[in-house]
Automatic annotation (TrEMBL):
Residues 1-33 form the signal peptide. It comes from Lutibaculum baratangense AMV1. This is TPR domain protein. PROSITE patterns: TAT. Keywords: Signal.
Length: 202
């Protein structure tokens, strides 16, 4: 029990220091950075089949380098807009976020989630903005909307786990993070899983 509390305190200190908040702030690494350079309209085709193949490849990735390449493909898939108007709005939101106009980005994403409520990434990007505005409860609500539409969104899960850990809800956060790592074995935030003395993770 004492070791478990000590591990939680160490993890809380890491989260409080902001070391692992990059994923939720949209800076999860080169894979995401490349994916968000330009949002495009999705092309007709076997979207669900392609998605399933991507996640299977990610699960079977041989090493971190291969996993990062597949992760980038998945982010590009998530960022494929349902139509040109949605693509334009998302690009504008990302541009505004890039110059730290969070209020402007939030306003655009408010329009986007209202106009295209079925697009999971619209909710995920608004969750990111709300987190950056210190609206953690609003961010959690948008993450829930994201996961309703894309249950395997490991980026949203990582963000959700980070917020819950900041709130001291470690067991729930660890459960969510373990599921995210099941989906993406090389997820950057896997280092946040707490090892028990037996070698098992909580």
């Amino acid at each position: 029990m004492r070791r478990g509390r000590s591990a939680r305190r160490r993890l809380a200190a890491i989260v409080a220091a902001g070391i692992v908040l990059g994923a939720l702030a949209g800076t999860a690494g080169p894979a995401l950075a490349q994916a968000v350079q330009s949002v495009v309209r999705a092309e007709p085709g076997d979207g669900e089949a392609a998605r399933a193949r991507l996640f299977m490849r990610l699960y079977q990735a041989a090493d971190e380098t291969q996993a990062r390449e597949i992760e980038g493909e998945i982010w590009r898939h998530w960022l494929e807009a349902p139509d040109e108007e949605a693509a334009s709005l998302m690009n504008e939101a990302l541009r505004l976020r890039g110059v730290w106009d969070l209020a402007g980005a939030r306003a655009v994403l408010d329009r986007l989630t209202e106009a295209r409520p079925g697009w999971a990434e619209a909710w995920n990007q608004r969750a990111t903005i709300r987190f950056m505005q210190d609206d953690t409860e609003g961010s959690l609500l948008d993450i829930e909307e994201t996961l309703r539409r894309e249950p395997k969104h490991f980026g949203a899960m990582a963000g959700q786990a980070i917020i819950l850990m900041r709130q001291g809800r470690f067991e729930t956060a660890q459960s969510i993070l373990k599921w995210a790592v099941e989906i993406h074995p090389f997820l950057a935030e896997r280092s946040m899983l707490i090892e028990q003395p037996t070698g098992e993770r909580i």
